[in-house]
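Key idea: predict the complex, not the pieces.
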Amino acid sequence: MASRVQRKSAVPPAPQRKSRRAHGGVTLQDVARLAGVSPITASRAINQPEVVSEDTRERVQRAIRKTGYTPNLLAGGLASSRSRLVAVVVPTLTGPMFMETIQALTERLAEVGYQVMIGQSGYDNAREDELLSAIIGRRPDGIVLTGVVHSARGRVRLAAAGIPVVETWDFIPTPIDMLVGFSHESIGPEVATFFRQRGCKRVAVLSADDERAVRRAKSFAAAAHALRIAAGKTAEASCEWLPALTSLGVGRRGFAALLERLPRVDGVFCSSDVVAQGVLAEAQARGLRVPEDVAVMGFGDLAFAPDLHPPLTTVRVDANEMGRVAADLILKRVAGESVRKRVVDVGFAIVGRGSA
Amino acid sequence: MASRVQRKSAVPPAPQRKSRRAHGGVTLQDVARLAGVSPITASRAINQPEVVSEDTRERVQRAIRKTGYTPNLLAGGLASSRSRLVAVVVPTLTGPMFMETIQALTERLAEVGYQVMIGQSGYDNAREDELLSAIIGRRPDGIVLTGVVHSARGRVRLAAAGIPVVETWDFIPTPIDMLVGFSHESIGPEVATFFRQRGCKRVAVLSADDERAVRRAKSFAAAAHALRIAAGKTAEASCEWLPALTSLGVGRRGFAALLERLPRVDGVFCSSDVVAQGVLAEAQARGLRVPEDVAVMGFGDLAFAPDLHPPLTTVRVDANEMGRVAADLILKRVAGESVRKRVVDVGFAIVGRGSA
DNA sequence: CCATAAAATGATAGCGCTAACATCCCGGCT
DNA sequence: AGCCGGGATGTTAGCGCTATCATTTTATGG
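Result:
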């Protein structure tokens, strides 16, 4: 450490350098001093307990308890380039669809000391770039996208960031990195076939107009048309669109509108169980019997589905599984293991209950 | 640029010191070099654009775009002790109750470049300490608790951490720091009075057994008893308890159990709209007319409440407002302004609709 | 008893950024 | 000319932690 220009004149005895420590917080340094070891040993006692001696570990633990030390994960993350953070992007927090996935993800990650950061993309792609900056800037160890579409620009940025990315709730041929989801396009034909087996002759779909719901709806309408059980003249005519943020009321009014247009409809595929619940309510209010007059199929198999009246027939997707697998994929990557199966199809299943 | 110590003996040409830069990431240094300014000036161009000259700002911006630089917020947070992170603790992610608050909070904070980190406490207090460590370790600029509780030890730790804390969804005399919520105890009497005005003679409460719901239920039962309109012999006997994680089905079966015990009940206060929905379903299945045979009151005024059949009378609390105010309180604190009103009561309101 | 490997600990130098202070530059005023 | 004020920019030194390598201590065997 060479001093600079001045050398003579020992007048300023101590430069009394600044200290930015405003926090008054306890640092690893303090713990180490109290335990009588070097900071790095204290660090090891915390993060790799197996490499330090029993005795040392004890002393450090005691010092931690005495001082109430909480490691600064920002500093640790900066030094080790492991932030122990995983970012999740959801279109919206309200709406039970993705919550289960996030919950499973959060729990799995919490087990190994990881936290989850949430970003809301909204259903428009406007603020997306900003959101990406916020996320990438935090240098998370992984990013989980809940089926969000992304601009080409966004996809490139994500890929370039060198952060493990898991896309969920969808199935596309070219994921940014990894993917765990299911094919929305495969659902339509299966549901259409199910309706035909149940004897429906004029089915329609009541769907939110967010991107994935639209794909389910269109594949359904096309299949129904091909099977000659579509209620409308064309596939498109058999679709009734709802705003992306659905609720029971939206479903209810949507069904009313659908009946207006296609009074003889005898089967409805809904883009979510919430919408289906609205259809059930409207049907009941109009004295339509379910499933005799109109069969109703939901999507999601949410908690309330089996308790509806009649119990809701619906398409189940394993939201939990997606969360767990997404967590595992990221953790595996972080651990340096290479992931062979970068694309996982969790599939779906039609759960036949009373409503169809 | 002074070379260092060695001068003679050019044998070891370069000490070839380690470089931990595994990321290959672009740093502020790179941007600064490209823009022809010092790193600190580049930093200012980003964070305090108003203090640098127009020309410099432009050059830095261009360099950022060219390199695809994304600031490392971990490093920035460490250096400035401002993490631009706010942690939220919820009992559970599923369940729509708190989501609206978190959504509002997230949106407000995103506007000013803050992110939200989520922690799940679960309804038991076991992992709480671990969760607190994880949160405090991240050095968030604020912590939002949905619901107070928390072990004495936890409260002390939070207070000691020196981080602004906002408790929400409750109202207690001695918050850790700040609070925005409403009094659960005040709700019971108002609802009881409402039932009496509606002419109910034998009311009961069907409630989840999480801490705050219990307080609402007990205050209601006590008030109903005092008004002599309780269905049970004692206040406690007028309560039917449900597990904390409620669903439509749980509410439905809970109501069935309640009817078993108190067949002549003519008014039910439910701990959430979801439970109320179950009650409505069960009533319908049994041919009980609502509100003629039994009046039903929910709690939360969730999105579906007005669309139920009959429309649900319920207690509304402004979940959005709580999120917004919580965000504002924290931001104000972060900005160094002192907060005079550290306790905000957002109140509640009974929304009379068809079910009671 | 000493060589040798293995285990435990320590010294050093950053990770990428910003606070605090220092310097420079330029116009305006005496 | 000389000095002052203030805006723009630069220098220095960390923030609190850990990767890397160096050193010390301990176990092991010949």
